[in-house]
Amino acid sequence: MNVLTTIAEIRDAVLAAKNNRQTIGLVPTMGYLHEGHLTLASNARKENDVVIMSIFVNPTQFGPNEDFESYPRDLARDTELAASAGVDYIFAPSVEEIYPQDGGIYIRAGRQAQILCGASRPGHFDGVLQIVAKLFNLVQPDSAYFGQKDAQQVAIIQTLVRDYNFPVELRIIPVVREEDGLAKSSRNVYLSADERCQAPAIQQALQLAKRELIESRNVEKALTLATKIIEDNTDGKIDYFSILSYPDLKEVDEHSGQIVLAAAVYIGKTRLIDNLIFSLKGEVAHV
Ligand code: PAF
Q1: Which of 91, 134, 172, 265 could form a disulfide with 54 if both were Cys (CB 3.0 to 4.6 A apart)?
Q2: What integer pLDDT is reported at residue 103 of this predicted model?
């Protein structure tokens, strides 16, 4: 496996693959890999000739008071893990390599980015779209792999691909969880032992709300129940708990097909997100 750090190197690797008529799968990450990322990589491995994983902690998607500086990084460990998942190339550029000092063109996310994580992280999804669009242009992947854990990110990237005509197939991979239900996340390392014990309550609250919603179709009741689970079982602070149609992220009504039940909760200082996507008939939905 090769670690590439420059735009010239990634372009050469992509050109070689295209000349050999090889398909390319892209796994965009910010590194500090966990099983969720490795599941994306192994899906990409099964479905493509060449697998490229980007590892780039993207400054433009972090707010001024967020954890850009302290975000966990370990390229040596990531390289070993990515190799074991069958990745062919890691693309790990510097910030200077990716963003021109005098750059002035931005992408602005639309309505889907004004709510949920976008409401408490203004500009976050603009930054995500900026880096994802750049990666799509540099890597020209046939398929790109994203985790359903970031359901709003997935919905917004689907809109990017549609609105900007990127010739890429998005492959959305279900959330990978710890045994107690906690969604795997690079930020789980921030949790103290006590906070780690509280964190699975998020998934329990989502499951309970889902059951309530399927049985009663009562959005308010489902949200009240979920809030109570978080309040009774954690010292956490709810950022949001929402029930919306998916992927358009609008209010649920009788015509809604897929539903996303999405939560963001601060456990201590760590903001954790999780979600369930399903149809009101109770089946897990196809994203
Ligand atoms: O989901 C992430 O890790 C990031 O938002 C992504 C898609 C790699 C863009 O930086």
Answers
A1: 91
A2: 85
pLDDT at 282 (0 to 100): 60
Sites in the chain below the pLDDT cut of 50: none
Residue 150 alpha carbon to ligand 1 centre in Å: 9
2-173 sits in which CATH class?
A: alpha beta
Q: Whose CA is nearest to atom 1 of ligand 1?
A: 29
127 touches ligand 1 (CB under 6 Å): no
- Residues near 245 by beta carbon (within 8 Å), at least 6 away in sequence: 251, 252, 253, 256, 257, 258, 259, 260
Say whether 37 is catalytic. Answer: yes
DSSP helix/strand/coil, 27:
strand
What is the tens place of the pLDDT at every residue in 271-285? 999 999 999 876 666
Best probe residue, ligand 1, of 26, 27, 29, 135 (max atoms within 8 Å of C-beta): 29
Threshold 0.90, pTM exceeds = yes
CATH 3.90.800.10 for the 187-276 domain, yes or no: no
Q: Which residues pair with residue 278 across a beta bridge?
A: 259, 284
Would the CB of 131 count as within 6 Å of ligand 1? Answer: yes
Query: Looking at residue 21, what is its pLDDT?
Result: 98
CA distance 79 to 56: 13
**What are the residue ranges of CATH 3.30.1300.10 in the chain?**
187-276
